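Figure-free illustration: sequence to structure, shown twice.
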Amino acid sequence: MELTRGSEYALRGLAVLASHSPGEAVSLADIAATQAIPAAFLAKVFQRLVRHGVLDATPGPGNGYALARPPAEISIRQALEAVEGPRLFQHCLLWRSHRADSGPCPLHDHLKGCLSTLTLCLERISLAEYAATSAPEVHRTPTTS
């Protein structure tokens, strides 16, 4: 399985939001600046997270994004599926062009359990756990000018 840059940016942005008070909206510009992520790209990724109930968007003068639930209640699997799509865990671990069951790769029978284990593992990792151990570039205070 190969994740896109969108998933990386989603996790980095979500980690920033997890470091703020519950329900506290943070501007997209501040999140993008603290993570050195293109704001336009992050906006598209965050739109997917809003549509899947991971984030809440607050329009208007105090616009921004906040987690829709406490970080302990959001799994990494939920975030990845919101960005990559619901079929993320239906693809072969080795070849994206192969579907796990309907178009199996030559190693399918040997690796089938690995995909189930990976899916379960990512379901068990909460955003709170991820944020607590994420890369040091996550900062509490925005660095915008």
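We now fold a second protein in the same way, so the two outputs can be compared directly.
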Amino acid sequence: MSILRDKRKAMGLNQEDFGALFHVDQTTVSKWETGSNMPNLDQALAISAEFEISLDLIYNNPLSFGPLCIPVYSQYFRSGASGSRAEQSRYYDANYREIAYYMQGQDAPSGMLSDEDILSTYLALSVNGTAMEPRFCDGDLVLIRKSREERDGLICAVCIDNDPARLFRIMLHKNGLSLLSLNPTYPPIFIPRSEIDSGRIMIVGQAVGFRGRA
């Protein structure tokens, strides 16, 4: 029996009443209790606060809650980690509170959330050059949440042709997209939709975290 079902019954609530507390319907609560679906992080945080249940119990997945050492890449290619250059003995040190913040508003995975899941979803890039100054400087570390989604206005790591990933702000257009540097001395790069569809660029993911160089 799930912890949510236990708590709901202990409080004398049916599934509809329980769902009303968190603005979901009875069917959603039923799926939570059977494990066929999970609350997203915002919902889980509300449940945790209301009923004093820890997130690891809600997700039925006790995590280590130790530090997360996310690999840093000086060069990251479209082939992924196996073909990229990771920096030796250098990591982006994160914790679960930080990762939970970046996950707000997203659906939790239907399976168990684990250290391995998190480390497979995030990577860190070492900034090279001045194209993203003044916000990102040479040697800074940027945490990337992997996603191929094109989203207007976001700063993302992007591979162009066979070059390693670089940071750009994405600007969507009807017939393609522009890759913008934050440093105005660098001209924008326009990629027509036909070249996007042919695979000229690959969006690695969105920049979500930052560590300034020491």
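Summary for the second example: Strands lie at 68-75, 85-94, 122-126, 141-146, 155-160, 166-173, 176-180, 189-192, 201-211.
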